[in-house]
Amino acid sequence: MNTKTVIGFALGIALLAPSYGAEAQPPAQVHRIGYLSASSAETDKNRFAHFQRGMQELGYIEGKNLVIEQRYAGAQPERIPELPAELLRLKVDVLVVYGDAAILAAKNATSTIPIVMTVHPDPVGDGIVANLARPGGNVTGLSDLHSVLATKRLELLKEVVPSASRIAVFFHAANPTLERQLKDIQDIAPAFRVTLLPVPVTGPDDFGRAFGAIRKERAAGLMVLGSPLIGIHRKQIVDLAAKSGLPAIYTVSESPDAGGLMSYGANFHELWRRAATYVDKILKGAKPADLPIEQASKFELVINLKTAKQLGVTIPPNVLARADRVIR
């Protein structure tokens, strides 16, 4: 073999080496996440986008190393028990779940696949986890402290409508967590010299009757306890409150955005983004049992001044000064 032949052979090997090495690299692992919601795709749209953004910030790109399978109960809550099984058949690595009933259904469907709650008001009280510091089992995630915030919401409503002595509490009757929240509000109501009017509903067909009862009882204010049912029918509830002339406080900022008077609660977009950090830790080997439940730390007061004007309500300057966002 002459010198030119040897050089040519070596050069050929050198040129082929990078191509061969690239082909020999193993493909990126594709993680499959199941997203289960007791709400609807439209209601969850912005929140889900924050979860996607959280995953992207951690290096997970859909279509490259991540697949997210989505299932929504929407206006058919009776479908909730069957939806976890659909996702489990797709061999998901983690279930990300929103809605108390959906979380319970997921927990009943599997004791091995990790479950991350985007939000739950009382996971210990509902028997979802053993305790907040060490959840145990296969469920972890975030809590929005709905029950703890009940006092603050009643206080804000009384500041805006100081003469109110009767306040209605509108809630989904099928949700046991909301029953406990109602009890918490009833316990503190005497301190605010308020009589509460519980108004349970089972679905949108009840809404007209419920607001009729509120008007008949001459309630001067309204507290709406958040749930997937309330979220799906948010605009209808906001409109009914406006037609009834009721100053109302809600749990999430989407309600003032839809025309409600005001809201006070955890920043749900932040909770959904934080849920991505739990998924990341689990995909990297952490066990849900060892990941403490993270309690919400960001809360926001949102006030819709256009609605206040329509209702003839004056927002006190000290309340307005505390608002994180004002819709004018």
Write the layout of secondary structure elements.
Elements lengths: L2 H22 L6 E7 L3 H17 L8 E7 L10 H7 L4 E5 L1 H10 L5 E6 L18 E5 L2 H15 L5 E7 L3 H13 L6 E7 L5 H10 L4 E4 L3 H5 L1 H10 L4 E3 L3 H4 L4 E5 L1 H16 L10 E2 L3 E6 H7 L5 H6 L2 E3 L1
Parallel strand pairs: 1-2, 1-3, 3-4, 4-5, 5-11, 6-7, 6-8, 8-9, 9-10, 12-13
Antiparallel strand pairs: 10-12
Helix pairs in contact: 2-11, 5-6
Written description of the protein model:
The N terminus is likely disordered. Helix content is 43%, strand content 20%. The longest helix is centred in the first third of the chain and has 22 residues. It is elongated and about 65 Å long. The strands form two sheets. It has a seven-stranded mixed sheet with strand order 7-6-8-9-10-12-13, sandwiched between helices. Strands 2-1-3-4-5-11 form a six-stranded parallel sheet. The chain has two domains: 147 residues, Rossmann fold; 149 residues, Rossmann fold, CATH 3.40.50. With 328 residues, the protein is an alpha/beta fold.
Radius of gyration: 25 Å
Q: What is the CATH topology descriptor of the largest domain?
A: Rossmann fold
Strand order of the largest sheet: 7-6-8-9-10-12-13
Query: Which range does the strand content fall in?
Result: 15-25%
- Name of the CATH superfamily of the largest domain: Response regulator
Broad CATH class of the largest domain: Alpha Beta
Query: How far from one another are the termini?
Result: 86 Å
List the helices and strands in order: HEHEHEHEEHEHEHEHHEHEHEEHHE
CATH architectural category of the largest domain: 3-Layer(aba) Sandwich
